[in-house]
Each structure stands twice: as C-alpha cells, then as structure tokens.
Design a protein that fits this description.
- It is a single chain.
- The chain is of the alpha+beta class.
- The protein has one domain (about 30-220): Exo-inulinase, domain 1 (Jelly Rolls), CATH 2.60.120.560.
- Helix content is about 15%, strand content about 45%.
- Strands 1, 3, 4, 6, 11, 12, 13 and 15 form an eight-stranded antiparallel β-sheet that branches. A seven-stranded antiparallel β-sheet has the order 2-5-14-7-8-9-10, with no helix packed on it.
- The longest helix has 24 residues, at about 1-25.
- The radius of gyration is 19 Å and the shape is globular.
Length: about 220
Amino acid sequence: MKAATGLVVMAACALWLQAACGAEENGFVPLFDGKTLDGWEQKGGKAKYTVEDGCIVGTSVPNTSNSFLCTKKHYSDFILELEFKVDPGLNSGVQVRSNSLKEYHNGQVHGYQVEIDPSSRAWTGGIYDEGRRGWLVTLKDNEAARKAFKPKDWNKLRVECRGDSIKTWINGVAAADLTDSMTRSGFIALQVHGVGSRQDPLRVRWRNIRLKDLSAQSSEQ
C-alpha cells in the first residue's frame, strides 16, 4: 500500500508540474511569422533586414547609423523570449519599451536596449539606454552571465518588463535587474549597430520571437 501511495503522490506531482509548465506557455504569441516582416517597420539607419530559413537576418551596411526593425505595436508589461546568433565583430541588441518621436531628436530611436555583445567584454544581457543615458546595467560584476553567452552559436534571451522592473536572462542565467520608471511603454526592436566604413557585411539572426502580454492579463483580473 505504501508503494502504491507513493506512486499516486509522484503521479500527482508530475501532473502539477505539467500544468505549471503549461500555464507558463499559455499566452505567448509569435511576433514573427517565420516568413515575412509583417507587423515590423524599419527606423534609423539603412542596414538590411531579410527573412532567411525562418530567421530575421540583419546585415550591416557601411556608413550608416544604428538601424532598428521595430514592431508596429507598442507593449508595456510583458515577457519576451527569442533566440539570436551574431557574427563576431557586430554589436547588436533588442530594444524594449522604446520610441521614435518627432519631438525627440527628430525621431531618433531611444529607450531600453538589451545588449548583444560578442566582444571580449561579453556584456550580452546588460541594459543600455539607447539615445538617452547610456549604460544602466553592465555585467562587469556578473561573471556567470558573461560566461553564459555562446559565441558563434544560438543563444536564448528572456526579458521581463513588469511595472518599473526590467529583468533579463541569457541562456537561463540571470543577467540584468533594473528598476527604472522613465519609460513604461514602447515598441520592441531588433538593432543592427553601425559599423562605420567597414565594407564586409556582418550579420545577426533572430528566431522564435514570442511575447506574453502581461498588460492584457492585468486588465482582465
């Protein structure tokens, strides 16, 4: 009887874990259909954005400023997950709660950027305030997060924006934890950093881009 009771308890625990995982999956929607750039628009520089093999590919172009492929929709509280792979030598990032306003530097893209940094500094997952205040959270004191980045391979990024809290993870390792209330809503964007006069194209790829809108959940409760 004891063995049977133990099996029942184990089965119940397994069902609970499965339900918990299912609850986490519920509510995520893709931001990229894997085939087109529908729902996105380019701002800033002239880097090239294409779709190849189910990925959004950003390719550097010489003598242009930072480029951004932006969602047409704005988001406030959400969980964003995606995978990326970046060429060595190309700085990149993912904008969250960002904006492009005519009254702000004639439309310059600005806002929170989750860094993609393949350099030896390895600050991927840190938070930079694009077009405004500069670095908000570096990874100089987070060795575990710096080591979590995989050069020349696919990496998974998770970003949680809740109220004035922005948190990031790189390949499951906690990276940045920021409390800041300057901007509570904006678009999500994929950055290709300017490369100056460098002629050889550098690329960054993104795939499996999905978002769970927590603002909609909060309004329903």
